[in-house]
């Protein structure tokens, strides 16, 4: 749930920090006090679109922060955090977003900088904002199949998992077929190109590690004179007559004689003896190399030509010999497919037909399960609608079969509803009445609130356009939803305010020619006055206070029954 919300320099809010609890929290206040601004701030915090116009006049940036506590170990947000490489400690997630006057945003999740898309993805798992006229997930026809599948998850999951595996293999095979199915002229051009390239690479006879060996050999050949002169000088200095090795031999003999007489020379004698034989071995090695050294201008030219060939091939086929050889293997396979195109096509086409038969069977099973679940869902939603005084409403889940397979099978699912007797059902998003739309949304949200995995649900004046017994029904339905998810609700209805577990009052004040918005949780007496104001308007009388008290008492009794 959303535990704490902080807002700085956002619209008419200078500095606001508020803590929230579970259950139903209602925010009320006079028109223009800034209730919707708070929702706008939460919307931006969850990754909504924002710009510099939200920044309070005179400030350089708007700062938004939210602390969420996750109580469910299998909450879908954990997977999203893992995919984004974000750690979570003590079941706490902190979202932060700064909107600068340049229009740019800086987003953080648990202190880690993230792109706006990641913030939006994570925010969607934590917050579900509903406004009266917004196109919500429930009002998006493309989402209806996912909602139905979620409702039928227990019975649908095993078949759906198998279908997904088969479908991905099917898509890959279709992609292979598409790559093979090219026109004759293009195919002939590719065959010629691949054959030329393969011949060029085969004649080059490339070997791994060859380039490094050639570079080393070229370096030796180009520095032949220096190598010969310096190695010869070294040999003469060690092995030449009356040179280093002779003098060290003399020192070795002398120290051996001294060590016989005095043991303190023994260590020095052994060191000189070791050095003598090491120098002798080094001299032999140098002499062997000198005997084999021979400058070959023709070989240097061969090396240069070979290196030039390698560079030319690297420009065409890859930055390394390894990449060039990998490219050779790739075009070898592709050339074989082109030369044997008809045979390969037949094999793959037969495989596609076989896979389509399997997919058709699985899609049929999916559809059967969905249609069974759809009947249960329709009954559950109509029961909710009856409680919302839409007794005549008829809700159905409409199925149409797609011509081709998609990731969900072959079902196209759309929620249809008829709210008046004699009127044919229409697609849910086409309902015109704001009051009916609000009640439909609440009915659906009641069904899905226990399983959608959303941490916090926010209703922004979804009760507009209703009154009387319908208003009371909506209030009770919102309260019912809050039994499973934290609900924050901005409302003008006294019935909704009376059902609140926590009631915040939003007011707007002017100080030093600047407007400020403040938010404060109100106690029982203040709640009576606020509900009284909502019932009667600006004037509060003893009678309206009595009615407000009665409404609050009735709401408390109803909540006790619901629990």
TrEMBL record:
Pfam families with a match to the protein in the record: SMC_N (PF02463)
Domain RecF/RecN/SMC N-terminal: 1-508
Protein name: DNA repair protein RecN
Lineage: Bacteria, Bacillati, Bacillota, Bacilli, Bacillales
UniProt keyword list: ATP-binding, DNA damage, DNA repair, Nucleotide-binding
Similarity-based family: Belongs to the RecN family.
Biological role stated in the UniProt entry: May be involved in recombinational repair of damaged DNA.
Organism (species): Lysinibacillus piscis
Domain of life: Bacteria
């Amino acid at each position: 749930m959303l535990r704490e919300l902080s807002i700085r320099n956002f619209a008419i809010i200078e500095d606001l920090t508020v803590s929230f609890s579970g259950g139903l929290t209602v925010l009320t206040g006079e028109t223009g006090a800034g209730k919707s601004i708070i929702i706008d701030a939460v919307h931006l915090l969850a990754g909504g679109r924002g710009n510099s116009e939200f920044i309070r006049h005179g400030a350089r940036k708007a700062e938004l922060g939210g602390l969420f506590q996750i109580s469910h170990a299998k909450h879908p947000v954990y997977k999203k955090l893992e995919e984004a490489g974000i750690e979570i400690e003590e079941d706490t997630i902190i979202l932060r977003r700064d909107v600068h006057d340049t229009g740019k945003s800086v987003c953080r999740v648990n202190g880690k900088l993230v792109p706006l898309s990641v913030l939006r993805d994570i925010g969607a798992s934590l917050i579900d904002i509903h406004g009266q006229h917004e196109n919500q997930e429930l009002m998006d026809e493309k989402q209806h199949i996912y909602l139905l599948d979620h409702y039928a998850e227990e019975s649908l999951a095993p078949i759906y998992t198998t279908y997904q595996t088969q479908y991905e293999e099917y898509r890959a095979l279709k992609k292979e077929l598409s790559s093979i199915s090219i026109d004759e002229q293009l195919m002939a051009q590719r065959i010629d190109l691949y054959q030329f390239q393969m011949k060029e690479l085969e004649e080059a006879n490339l070997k791994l590690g060859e380039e490094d060996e050639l570079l080393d050999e070229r370096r030796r050949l180009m520095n032949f004179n220096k190598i010969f002169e310096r190695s010869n000088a070294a040999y003469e200095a060690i092995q030449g007559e009356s040179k280093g090795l002779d003098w060290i031999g003399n020192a070795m003999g002398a120290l051996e004689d001294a060590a016989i007489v005095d043991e303190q020379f023994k260590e020095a004698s052994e060191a000189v003896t070791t050095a003598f034989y090491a120098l002798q071995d080094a001299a032999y090695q140098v002499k062997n190399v000198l005997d084999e050294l021979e400058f070959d201008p023709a070989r240097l030219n061969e090396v240069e030509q070979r290196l030039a060939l390698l560079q030319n091939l690297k420009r065409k086929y890859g930055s390394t010999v390894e990449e060039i050889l990998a490219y050779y293997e790739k075009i070898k396979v592709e050339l074989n497919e082109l030369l044997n195109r008809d045979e390969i096509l037949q094999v793959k086409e037969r495989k596609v037909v076989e896979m389509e038969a399997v997919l058709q069977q699985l899609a049929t099973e999916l559809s059967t399960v969905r249609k069974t679940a759809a009947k249960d869902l329709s009954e559950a939603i109509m029961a909710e609608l009856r409680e919302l005084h839409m007794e005549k409403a008829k809700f159905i889940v409409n199925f149409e079969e797609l011509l081709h397979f998609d990731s969900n099978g072959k079902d196209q699912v759309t929620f249809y509803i008829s709210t008046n007797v004699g009127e044919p059902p229409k697609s849910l998003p086409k309902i015109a009445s704001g009051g009916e739309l609000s009640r439909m949304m609440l009915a659906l949200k009641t069904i899905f609130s226990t399983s959608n995995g959303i941490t916090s649900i926010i209703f922004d004046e979804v009760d507009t356009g209703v009154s009387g017994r319908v208003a009371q029904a909506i209030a009770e339905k919102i309260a019912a939803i809050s039994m499973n998810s934290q609900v924050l609700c901005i409302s003008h209805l006294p019935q909704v305010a009376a059902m609140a577990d926590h009631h915040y009052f939003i007011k707007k004040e002017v100080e030093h020619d600047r407007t400020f918005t403040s938010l404060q949780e109100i106690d029982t007496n203040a709640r009576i006055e606020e509900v009284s104001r909502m019932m009667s308007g600006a004037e509060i009388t003893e009678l309206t206070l009595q009615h407000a008290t009665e409404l609050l008492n009735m709401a408390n009794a109803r909540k006790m029954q619901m629990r």
